[in-house]
Inverse folding.
């Protein structure tokens, strides 16, 4: 089962990624779900490709996808899909976006694939089998000094309306670490923690499809994922803290300080 599941997820991610790559740099039809939350024709086409490939093999599985919502089936399995994580980047021809596909079995993520089509980088994991980047085993960084760490974050789409918008946390971290990046694809940011390019990541108000696949990839790479206060993280929570584990408690201290 493991090989078939990963094969289906990888094929779907790469096929959707090829679609996104071929359309990248073109003019797109853009709709706004909220004031600064776009969806493009490329999102919808990539989603159609992914769902079609999954349904052709697993017609009885449930699907939760960013653009089309949830399709319930009487099944222990649910595929959680973000066909284009980084739509704002994509619509501006900024080359940092990904395809994210996770599989949940009885509430537990058992497989995850995140694909960067421009760099042709495929991150994937199956529960208990480690995490990989293009077939090479990956692991988190060994940085244990917060002051020497490179972190990443993002900001919610309601940043203009809500005071709970991550700006306070950002201001604290930027004074305590080597640098903070804000690239615009949470799934890729999390995978960069998994492979040691980043030492930590935090964000607020994400959705299940943003983190489902990358959550497993980080865990299988030896990283740690919690809520801001250190409690166990669920993909349905609205705050996530991920790190190499060595700086995790330091990050919790900053996130929970007044």
């Amino acid at each position: 089962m493991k090989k078939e599941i990963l094969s289906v997820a990888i094929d779907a991610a790469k096929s959707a990624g090829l679609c996104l790559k071929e359309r990248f740099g073109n003019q797109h039809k853009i709709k706004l779900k909220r004031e600064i939350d776009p969806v493009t024709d490329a999102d919808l086409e990539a989603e159609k490709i992914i769902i079609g490939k999954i349904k052709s093999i697993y017609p009885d599985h449930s699907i939760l996808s960013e653009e089309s919502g949830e399709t319930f089936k009487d099944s222990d399995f649910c595929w959680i899909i973000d066909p284009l994580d980084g739509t704002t980047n994509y619509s501006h021809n900024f080359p940092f976006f990904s395809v994210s596909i996770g599989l949940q079995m009885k509430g537990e993520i058992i497989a995850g694939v995140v694909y960067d089509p421009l760099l042709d980088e495929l991150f994937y994991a199956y529960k208990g089998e480690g995490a990989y980047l293009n077939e090479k085993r990956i692991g988190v960084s060994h940085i244990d000094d917060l002051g020497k760490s490179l972190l990443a974050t993002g900001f919610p789409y309601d940043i203009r309306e809500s005071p709970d918008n991550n700006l306070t946390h950002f201001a604290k971290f930027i004074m305590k670490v080597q640098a903070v990046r804000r690239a615009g694809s949470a799934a890729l940011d999390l995978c960069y923690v998994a492979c040691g390019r980043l030492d930590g990541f935090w964000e607020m108000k994400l959705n299940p499809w943003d983190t489902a696949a990358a959550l497993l990839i980080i865990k299988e790479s030896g990283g740690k994922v919690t809520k801001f206060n250190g409690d166990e993280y669920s993909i349905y929570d609205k705050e996530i803290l991920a790190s190499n584990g060595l700086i995790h408690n330091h990050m919790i201290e900053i996130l929970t300080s007044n």
Notes: The mean pLDDT is 93. Residues 83 and 99 are 5 Å apart (CA to CA). The first strand starts at residue 30 and ends at 34. Residues 2-137 form a domain with the Fructose-1,6-Bisphosphatase; Chain A, domain 1 fold (CATH 3.30.540.10).
